[in-house]
Fold this sequence. Notes:
Blueprint: H1 4-25, H2 29-35, H3 64-76, H4 85-90, H5 100-110, H6 118-124, H7 131-134, H8 148-159, E1 168-171, H9 179-185, E2 191-195, H10 198-211, E3 220-223, E4 240-243, H11 252-263, E5 272-276, H12 280-283, H13 287-297, E6 300-308, E7 315-322
Parallel strand pairs: 1-2, 1-4, 2-3, 4-5
Antiparallel strand pairs: 5-7, 6-7
Amino acid sequence: MLPVPALLLLLSSAALLVFLILPSLSPSPAAHLCACSPPTTTHTTTTVTTTTTTASPAPVTTSPADVAWLKAQLASNSLPLLASHDAFHRLRKGINPRTREQQLFDINRHHGISHYPDEEAANRTALPCPGELLVEEHHSNYGEPWAGGRDVFEFLANASALTPRDQVLEIGCGTLRVGLHFIRFLEAAKFHCLERDELSLMAALRYELPAQGLLYKRPMIVRGEDMDFSRFGDTVMYDLIYASAVFLHIPDKLVWTGLERLAGKLRPQRGRIFVSHNIKFCSRLGGDKCTQRLAELGLEYVGKHTHDSLLFNHYEIWFEFRRPKV
């Protein structure tokens, strides 16, 4: 038997030995991670669904629902659909009934309320605009209402199944009564126009495009006549070519020259040429001869359309041509 002091000394030494060697016997954290299977981790995945709303292109045609809504607005505001001339003018309370001629006089003589004189206008205005354009005299230069340009656009865009990426040529775009709607609808640089009249071009470029905020669309508007389309380039292909009340005023021979030059620039199958009012340049040849001449150019007559105006007691006749094959 060991004496008590010796026993206590032995137990203390054993405890100290265990304390010193125990850490070396225990697995290290790294050994634990490598030797054991990784712990099962539960991941909670939150799926966020993002809905991207792509703005639909503006509708080309006014719908029956649009008309019904407008009629309801007129009724709710007690506004008649039609008013006589006298009744219309009795409504002008507090409105200064100046004609365009009087407005122009005020601008030129009195400089309006806050117009710079001519000498200063050139220094202060990026695009000096003649007074005749400011009072929109050019809106009365044509036989139909200015707003009728929307009707023409609606018909042609629908009849040709037009998309914003398509290439369009107007022969005789004038002051852009119709062209503004195409320029707004199409992508930039997709609208071409050949126009011979200097005043119309001035109104289009110096008033209408800036006033409508469409300069960024970069339409290619070329002054020219004799059906010279060379400045538009040799490789351009058109999805729509149209002439609104233009071929009426051009000699038949020149019309055929234009068609000959444009036939190869019309996209096969899908591309369309539309001519308004009549096609006397063709009918004067006689049906068979006209068909034969069109065929020689690679064109064919598709048919006749009558388009009714939404706003006016008016309709317009259009004649359609296409290029059936390469």
